[in-house]
Predict the structure.
Amino acid sequence: MSIVISSSITFAADDKQKAAAVTDEDGKYFDADGNPTFKLQDDGTVDWYTFSGYRRYHSDCHTCHGPDGMGSSYAPALVNSLKTMDYATFLSIVAEGRKNVGGGKENVMPAFGNNKNVYCYMDDIYIYLRARAVDGIPRGRPPKKADKPQAAKDQEASCMGS
């Protein structure tokens, strides 16, 4: 399945096959194109970054975008948006914000590039929402999580300035 954005640009919709983890760098998984992705074990254990993304999403994003990325009357369902949004676009919108005007309605996504509680965890949030978008994980708090890798601890300390 592909989505036509304009007459000259077509993006393939994300799905479980495209989102499949093919490499692992210290507990962080990447797809064949090098984009961050999730890893679900047979026993239901999610990788650390998916779990962290769930926590970070529900601390800063769900008030507008609804629980589990399902949307609200105020902001769109990110589980739908991430089906056709690439990683770089996601990072740009979260960092810089976005304003849409149409149909007599204005929607504004504020910039979070200066909010360390979001900025330092943008990959985690992306990974969680990607897992939700391709039906890789169900709604709700993941019941089991992998341990926090040292690389995640180091990145967090570096970004948060501790």
